[in-house]
Write a structure and sequence with these properties.
The protein is mostly helical and 117 residues long. It has helices at residues 28-41, 43-51, 55-81, 85-90, 92-115, and strands at residues 5-8, 11-14. A hairpin with a 2-residue loop joins β1 and β2. α1 packs across α2 (43-51) and α3 packs across α5.
Length: 117
Protein backbone atom coordinates (compact mmCIF):
# COMPACT_ATOMS: atom_id res chain seq x y z
CA UNK A 1 0.00 0.00 0.00
CA UNK A 2 1.40 3.31 -1.06
CA UNK A 3 0.56 6.64 0.53
CA UNK A 4 0.36 9.71 -1.65
CA UNK A 5 0.87 13.23 -0.37
CA UNK A 6 -0.45 16.60 -1.44
CA UNK A 7 1.55 19.77 -0.93
CA UNK A 8 -0.40 22.46 0.92
CA UNK A 9 1.70 25.57 1.40
CA UNK A 10 4.99 24.37 2.86
CA UNK A 11 3.58 21.07 4.15
CA UNK A 12 2.91 17.67 2.65
CA UNK A 13 -0.37 16.18 3.83
CA UNK A 14 -1.29 12.52 3.28
CA UNK A 15 -4.24 12.03 0.97
CA UNK A 16 -6.50 9.78 2.97
CA UNK A 17 -9.60 8.37 1.37
CA UNK A 18 -12.24 6.60 3.40
CA UNK A 19 -14.22 4.14 1.29
CA UNK A 20 -17.52 4.64 3.12
CA UNK A 21 -17.07 8.14 4.45
CA UNK A 22 -20.76 8.89 4.10
CA UNK A 23 -23.19 6.97 6.29
CA UNK A 24 -25.57 4.57 4.61
CA UNK A 25 -28.92 6.14 3.74
CA UNK A 26 -30.74 3.26 5.44
CA UNK A 27 -29.42 3.83 8.95
CA UNK A 28 -32.86 4.93 10.16
CA UNK A 29 -33.96 7.18 12.99
CA UNK A 30 -31.86 5.64 15.76
CA UNK A 31 -28.77 5.34 13.57
CA UNK A 32 -29.03 9.02 12.65
CA UNK A 33 -29.45 9.96 16.32
CA UNK A 34 -26.34 7.95 17.19
CA UNK A 35 -24.37 9.48 14.31
CA UNK A 36 -25.30 13.00 15.40
CA UNK A 37 -24.45 12.18 19.03
CA UNK A 38 -21.03 10.77 18.11
CA UNK A 39 -20.19 13.73 15.86
CA UNK A 40 -21.05 16.29 18.52
CA UNK A 41 -20.06 14.53 21.76
CA UNK A 42 -17.56 11.75 20.99
CA UNK A 43 -15.53 12.82 18.01
CA UNK A 44 -12.83 10.34 19.05
CA UNK A 45 -15.14 7.32 18.73
CA UNK A 46 -16.62 8.72 15.51
CA UNK A 47 -13.15 9.15 13.98
CA UNK A 48 -12.01 5.66 14.99
CA UNK A 49 -15.15 4.05 13.55
CA UNK A 50 -14.78 6.08 10.37
CA UNK A 51 -11.08 5.25 9.92
CA UNK A 52 -11.68 1.55 10.60
CA UNK A 53 -14.53 1.61 8.05
CA UNK A 54 -16.95 0.39 10.73
CA UNK A 55 -19.18 3.47 11.08
CA UNK A 56 -22.01 2.19 8.87
CA UNK A 57 -21.88 -1.23 10.49
CA UNK A 58 -22.08 0.38 13.95
CA UNK A 59 -24.99 2.65 12.99
CA UNK A 60 -26.95 -0.19 11.37
CA UNK A 61 -26.41 -2.35 14.45
CA UNK A 62 -27.61 0.46 16.73
CA UNK A 63 -30.70 0.89 14.52
CA UNK A 64 -31.52 -2.82 14.63
CA UNK A 65 -30.95 -3.16 18.37
CA UNK A 66 -32.88 0.02 19.21
CA UNK A 67 -35.92 -1.05 17.18
CA UNK A 68 -35.91 -4.45 18.86
CA UNK A 69 -35.61 -2.95 22.34
CA UNK A 70 -38.47 -0.49 21.70
CA UNK A 71 -40.65 -3.35 20.48
CA UNK A 72 -39.89 -5.48 23.55
CA UNK A 73 -40.46 -2.60 25.96
CA UNK A 74 -43.81 -1.69 24.37
CA UNK A 75 -44.93 -5.34 24.50
CA UNK A 76 -43.95 -5.58 28.17
CA UNK A 77 -45.79 -2.38 29.03
CA UNK A 78 -48.90 -3.65 27.21
CA UNK A 79 -48.84 -6.85 29.24
CA UNK A 80 -48.27 -5.01 32.49
CA UNK A 81 -51.09 -2.51 31.88
CA UNK A 82 -53.38 -5.13 30.31
CA UNK A 83 -53.66 -3.31 26.98
CA UNK A 84 -55.12 -5.90 24.61
CA UNK A 85 -56.85 -6.19 21.26
CA UNK A 86 -60.12 -6.22 23.16
CA UNK A 87 -59.43 -2.68 24.40
CA UNK A 88 -58.62 -1.72 20.83
CA UNK A 89 -62.03 -2.98 19.69
CA UNK A 90 -63.97 -1.40 22.56
CA UNK A 91 -62.18 1.91 23.04
CA UNK A 92 -59.90 2.69 20.13
CA UNK A 93 -58.94 6.21 21.25
CA UNK A 94 -57.84 4.96 24.68
CA UNK A 95 -55.84 2.18 23.03
CA UNK A 96 -54.10 4.67 20.69
CA UNK A 97 -53.33 7.02 23.59
CA UNK A 98 -51.80 4.23 25.67
CA UNK A 99 -49.80 2.81 22.77
CA UNK A 100 -48.39 6.24 21.90
CA UNK A 101 -47.43 6.80 25.53
CA UNK A 102 -45.76 3.39 25.73
CA UNK A 103 -43.80 4.05 22.54
CA UNK A 104 -42.62 7.46 23.76
CA UNK A 105 -41.50 5.98 27.08
CA UNK A 106 -39.76 3.06 25.36
CA UNK A 107 -37.95 5.39 22.95
CA UNK A 108 -36.73 7.60 25.80
CA UNK A 109 -35.35 4.55 27.62
CA UNK A 110 -33.62 3.21 24.51
CA UNK A 111 -32.17 6.60 23.62
CA UNK A 112 -30.76 7.05 27.12
CA UNK A 113 -29.32 3.53 27.42
CA UNK A 114 -28.26 2.77 23.86
CA UNK A 115 -27.97 5.89 21.71
CA UNK A 116 -26.66 8.56 24.06
CA UNK A 117 -24.09 6.56 26.00
Amino acid sequence: MEISYKKVGDYYIPEMVFPNAKPDKNIGKYGRLRLNYLKHNHMDIYTILLMDDKLNEHLLEIEKEAKEQVKILVENMCKKENVTEKLKENNQMEWVKLMNNFKIIAEEIVEKELIFC
